[in-house]
Amino acid sequence: MTPRQSFFACLQRSPPALFEAALWIAAEHDSEMNLESLLVDFKSLQQRISGSLPMLPVSELAQPLLRRMNDLGFAQDDFTPLRPQVALLNRVLERRRGQPLALGLIALELARGLEIPLVGVNFPGHFLLRVPGADHLLDPCGGRRLYPNDCRELLQRQYGPNLKLSAEHLVTAEPVQMLQRLSRNLRQLHLSNDDYIGALIDAERVLELGNGTAADYLARASLYQRLDCPNAERFDLEHALLLSDDPIQRIRLTERLGHLPPNSIVH
């Protein structure tokens, strides 16, 4: 199977193999990645962390797990400009530096193997974790507890005072949602680093995962524009137009479609 086929096969399992699926995403960008070797190394990491955790009920071990990861060097990568390696799980495991989502996926897999209850939260701008039933969230970059006021401050730092904290920001993330977020992150990272083919690989995956937004179709249309593929660009602009609720955006999309050459048919 191709890495993409293996990725979707992971999602068909019950429960979905989230961590392995994220590794298959990395494999699409790194043909030399050895998944079996990575999984063996990960098992060793899990055993090392397990032996150093305090003797507490498993429901109280999520924060010690994240702190132990931090002790071992796992931390947010603040180097700018950001590169795709901060979201490619094989590189994050190697460098122990990455985006909050990548660190969170590693923490979730460690927790799963150690039977520590932990779930992901697709918080805007900064992926977070939560122990089910707890009154706080956890930052995957070190394990800091975040209560509602901390979440409001984090949201304001990311988006300014106009975006208010709501219940939907704190909902548990499903595997497909986390993998779609990872794919969007990689799409933007590859684009920012002028790797349009790499960005297109991620843009296609975003839409194949379902529930694509107007922004997702528009992002892929812009990549097709850069790659001089007008027919594919038209297809995505038309889909973005169908999904858009913004009158101004709809006018701009209609104008942009009008400037494209008519569909060419190859016989």
Automatic annotation (TrEMBL):
InterPro entries assigned to the protein according to its UniProt record, in alphabetical order: SirB1_N
All residue ranges annotated as the Protein SirB1 N-terminal domain in the record: 58-183
Family per similarity comment: Belongs to the UPF0162 family.
Official protein name in the record: Tetratricopeptide repeat protein
Species assigned in the record: Pseudomonas izuensis
